[in-house]
Amino acid sequence: MDLVKGKQLFYSLILLSITILVCGRFTPEQIDFYGKECNASQEDLQIAKEYKVPTSELGKCLMKCMISKLGMLNSDGTYNKTGTFEALKQYWQEWPIDKVELINNKCHSEASKASPDVIATCNYAFEVMACINIEAKTLGVL
Ligand SMILES: *[C@@H]1O[C@H](CO)[C@@H](O)[C@H](O)[C@H]1NC(C)=O
Ligand SMILES: *[C@@H]1O[C@H](CO)[C@@H](O)[C@H](O)[C@H]1NC(C)=O
């Protein structure tokens, strides 16, 4: 990934995290709950609660673990289209269903292009979240 694209993803993820956390999608209790399930360090959890984006490899792995718990990833780490659709519907109830479908279809197809060695990385989860954020903005729901 080139630097500019990386920066855009990073920026998008910051906004996404702020949106998720500030709008109460994840309460501090949920962060603690999922964090414990995901073996997060106290430091990672603190970063999440301060609405910052984990930039460390461990932080990205925590995010991967958390979105897996939300059912967005299959056990092999690939994008679960049904699970992501359900999670988006649940967490972004104000998004029209047709837009949720468009976002899900686009990001599923993007994610399907990744090779198995990429899917195995925590950065893959980071890019899935970034895709959702970018598409949501493109469609004007975020
Ligand atoms: C968390 O740690 C426990 C105990 O060491 C281990 O059994 C479990 O598989 C770990 N979970 C994750 C998601 O890494
Ligand atoms: C994907 O998520 C759906 C809905 O949560 C679940 O029923 C299904 O078993 C998951 N698929 C895989 C391959 O894990």
TrEMBL record:
CDD domains to which the protein is assigned, alphabetical: PBP_GOBP
InterPro entries in UniProt: PBP/GOBP, PBP_GOBP_sf
Domain of life where this protein originates: Eukaryota
Lineage of the organism: Eukaryota, Metazoa, Ecdysozoa, Arthropoda, Hexapoda
Protein name, entry field: Odorant binding protein 3
GO molecular function: odorant binding
Position of the signal peptide: 1-24
Keyword annotations: Signal
Gene source species: Daktulosphaira vitifoliae (Grape phylloxera)
